[in-house]
Amino acid sequence: MPSFAYKVIRKKGFSANASISISGDKGVVVRAPFWMSMGMIEGFIREKSSWIEKNLYRFNTKKITNRYTEGESQLFFGEEYILTISKSENPGKNRVEIIENKIRVEINGMLPAEKQSEKIKEALLYWYLEKGIEIITQKVNYFSNEMRVNYKRINLKNVTSIWGSCSPSNCLSFNRKLVMAPHEVVDYVVIHEVAHMRHRNHGPNFWKLVESFDSQYKYHRKWLKLNHHLLSI
Q: What is the reported pTM?
């Protein structure tokens, strides 16, 4: 299992080989002939994994800049959605919803063009934080119950250096960028912080507890290290 996310695109027409491209905005893209099975593609990726990981580090410090325009890709808990914009004559609250594979943002159509991108960004951020805290709270409640611990409060924060923290008074804080990460990766971060309410260090007992709830925690931790540059909110 690779420690990075990738997207497979099937080539049209005849092609004998698969190829890999890596960029700061799209991550790892594998272009494969239509006849190549997923097993063969996965074998190709495993063969090139060292090269891929080495080159991913080149992009880890690059920030992905969203323009908040029609057709732009947005991530929500690991799924990619296409941003669509609709305009309303209602000057009230902006509306955001997921429809199939799209995130639809409805804004006031009377806004000047130069202010529309800013309002789209505000609407998306509010929606991400509202939905994110709801889903992460569900995860915290589940794992807290399983570990028989109690937390005081949950926050989503705009931070760059950490993914989560647990205070001495059991206040849990999470990086709001986690709203874009896959569920299993978010689960690891939640498990990590909830486990700190049992063990206040990173000793053997702590990691044993984490592993009992996430046997792939090393992979999920490495995924964050390699893919954090793709999470921009």
A: 0.72
Q: Return the C-alpha torsion angle 23, 27, 28, 29, nearest 10.
A: -80
Residue 197, token pair as written in the block: 């309410």
Indicate if 223 and 146 belong to the same structural domain. Answer: yes
What would the 3-class secondary structure string for 40-95 be?
Answer: HHHHHHHHCHHHHHHHHHHHCCCCCCCCCCCCCEEEECCEEEEEEEEEECCCCCCE
Closest CA to 190 of 137, 155, 140, 129: 140
Q: Is residue 41 part of a domain?
A: yes
Convert 184-211 to b/e letters by CB count within 10 Å (16 or more is b). Answer: ebbbbbbbbbbbbbeeeeeeeebeebbe
Compute the distance between CA of residue 193 and CA of residue 166 in angstroms, rounded to an integer.
Answer: 6
CA distance 163 to 180: 12
- Residue 82's domain spans which residues? 73-128
Q: Are strands 102-108 and 79-88 parallel, antiparallel or unpaired?
A: parallel
| pLDDT one-digit tens code per residue, 121-162 | 888 999 999 999 999 999 999 999 999 999 999 999 887 778
Q: Beta-strand (E) ranges in 78-158?
A: 79-88, 95-99, 102-108, 153-157
Cα–Cα distance, 134 to 179 (Å, whole number): 10
